[in-house]
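Quick one: structure for this chain?
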Amino acid sequence: GRKIKVGDVILGLPSNGLHTNGYTLARDVFFDKLKLKPSSKLPELGGSVGNELLKVHRSYLEPMTKLVKRFNAKGSTPQIKGFAHITGGGFIDNIPRILPKNVNAKIVRGSWDSQPVFEIIQKVGKVSETEMHTVFNMGIGMVFVAHPDEISNIKKALNGLSSMFLLGSVVSGNKDVIIK
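Got it. Here's what it folds into:
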């Protein structure tokens, strides 16, 4: 992330659910508060609670490899400037790991598709926005920073591999994540 600078864009690849984080809180909400069983079906989830919680973590290897080969070829100026896997610690702890000291990540809430599992956990568990973005991936499993002129080319390169969301931008700051 050393080449990340003010004006770069923050892009995200979707998760397919919880992936591997936040299960203690999820179990508390679904099994203790709502008194559901793994076989309980919730229309919002499109199936059973158990199926939602057992979704296999999505791999980002293929889309990331394609992007690096296409936009960071040896001898060229890198256009993909950093990747952050959104695991335990969510947006708040993972994105700063790739930021230089003089910038912040400004994320626009609602710039990606919401997933019902997170909405249920937040509402029933009475979990704050900050905690949700610290514990969970919130529907984004991989974040990366790129030069803004490459957005449409990146989208074309990902065609068929993954959808992509423009999450926000890099602004002046001190390695914080601002979600508004």
